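User: Can you recover a sequence for this backbone? Please restate the input before giving your answer.

Assistant: Of course. Working from this structure:
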């Protein structure tokens, strides 16, 4: 489906029941690119809608579930994002990025104790993995900020 930013928005897109794994992957890729670019709210809503379809077709793929949670998070739907981050974490329990995002949602919701625990867990999960150094630094910075305010 080259050249189509959001396949379901295209009038030639197949019906939802006829989506193939290739269509699902194209939806995921387009939505993921919108998330990476930090698009405007309309584009983020479109990405979230597309990711809801993707997750509806395969809720056991951690990257799909995580991307949907991230879209919700970016839109400020922290409680709903937490549910999907938790689901993604059940699918891949050692994911420090997911753990960091869970902490961010809890912090946004004012649950500072749980946020602190999540940030500490993210730091632990990244300690032996140099490729996760930026995640470790972000989690440590958030953890230090919460510690400074006595949370």
């Amino acid at each position: 489906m080259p050249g189509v930013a959001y396949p379901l928005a295209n009038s030639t897109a197949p019906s939802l029941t006829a989506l193939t794994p290739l269509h699902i992957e194209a939806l995921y890729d387009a939505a993921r690119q919108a998330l990476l670019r930090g698009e405007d709210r309309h584009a983020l809503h479109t990405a979230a809608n597309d990711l809801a379809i993707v997750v509806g077709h395969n809720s056991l793929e951690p990257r799909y579930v995580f991307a949907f949670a991230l879209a919700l998070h970016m839109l400020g739907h922290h409680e709903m994002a937490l549910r999907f981050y938790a689901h993604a974490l059940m699918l891949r329990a050692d994911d420090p990025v997911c753990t960091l995002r869970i902490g961010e949602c809890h912090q946004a919701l004012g649950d500072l104790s749980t946020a602190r625990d999540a940030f500490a867990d993210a730091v632990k999960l990244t300690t032996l993995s140099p490729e996760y150094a930026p995640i470790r630094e972000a989690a440590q910075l958030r953890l230090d900020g919460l510690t400074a305010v006595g949370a």
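That completes the design. The CA atoms of residues 78 and 105 lie 5 Å apart.
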